[in-house]
Amino acid sequence: MRIYQQSAAAHPQNAKILNDLALCYARSGQLPASAQLLDQATRLQPQKKLYRNNFAKVLIELNQIDGAVAQLSTVHQPAIVHYNMGVLLSQRGRTDEAVRFLTAATHINPQMQEAKTLLVQISGDANLVAASANSPVNDGVLPTPMAPTAQAAGQPYPATAAPTQPTFQTVPAETAQVPVGESPSQLPPVR
Questions:
Q1: What backbone phi and psi angles, to 5 degrees, belong to 109?
Q2: Is residue 146 within 8 Å of residue 101, measured between CB atoms?
Q3: Phi-psi region of 156 (alpha: psi -120 to 50; beta: other; left: phi over 0)
């Protein structure tokens, strides 16, 4: 990590170095420091999907759901945003929230097979996908993807799974249909 810190000090406007250092911080559990660096990286290169994806994952770890949605919304279409949020929340064991995001993704894009497949996997109910696809969207309003009560009160969302050490890997950003966090065995190793 020290080499990345030295590189960032020497090149504070290099978004790649800031991103890589942020991943080091995230892996060591220093999530606020990681988020700060990813914020800088996304300001330097606002359209870089990789940095937005990494920032969203860190924000999920910090229970900042709205911030994660905002980061993904900057560079992805709405259905992909909801799908990626569903994947990330599912990985954290936050199944109810993941189901709401995945359901919203299927409403936005009924052909998004990835969302349907994951929805069946985490809910264990194939009928849920069929009912979701066939249910009308109320006056064009999508289902609420997250519980509004905690956020409306300005409180972070409660974690529904026991805290674990986050694992962060570089995610290929150029593949828009690939979720932010596929299973770790499918991701390339971090350099």
A1: -135, 90
A2: yes
A3: beta
CA-nearest of 72, 144, 131, 76 to 104 is 144
DSSP string, the chain: -HHHHHHHHH-TT-HHHHHHHHHHHHHTT-HHHHHHHHHHHHHHSTT-HHHHHHHHHHHHHTT-HHHHHHHHHHHS-HHHHHHHHHHHHHHTT-HHHHHHHHHHHHHH-TT-HHHHHHHHHHH--HHHHHHHHHSPPGGGPPPPSS-HHHHHTTPPPPPSS-----------TT-TTS-TT--GGGSPPP-
**Tens digits of residue pLDDT in 117-170:** 999 999 886 666 655 555 544 333 333 343 322 333 333 333 333 334 444 444
Contacts (Cβ under 8 Å, ≥6 apart) of 188: 169, 170, 172
Q: What is the pLDDT of residues 61-71, one digit of tens each?
A: 999 999 999 99
Q: How many residues does the chain have?
A: 191
Q: Does residue 57 contact residue 168 with C-beta atoms inside 8 Å?
A: yes
Whether 24 has a pLDDT exceeding 90, the answer reads yes
pTM for this predicted structure: 0.69
Q: Map tokens 């709401």 to a residue.
A: 100
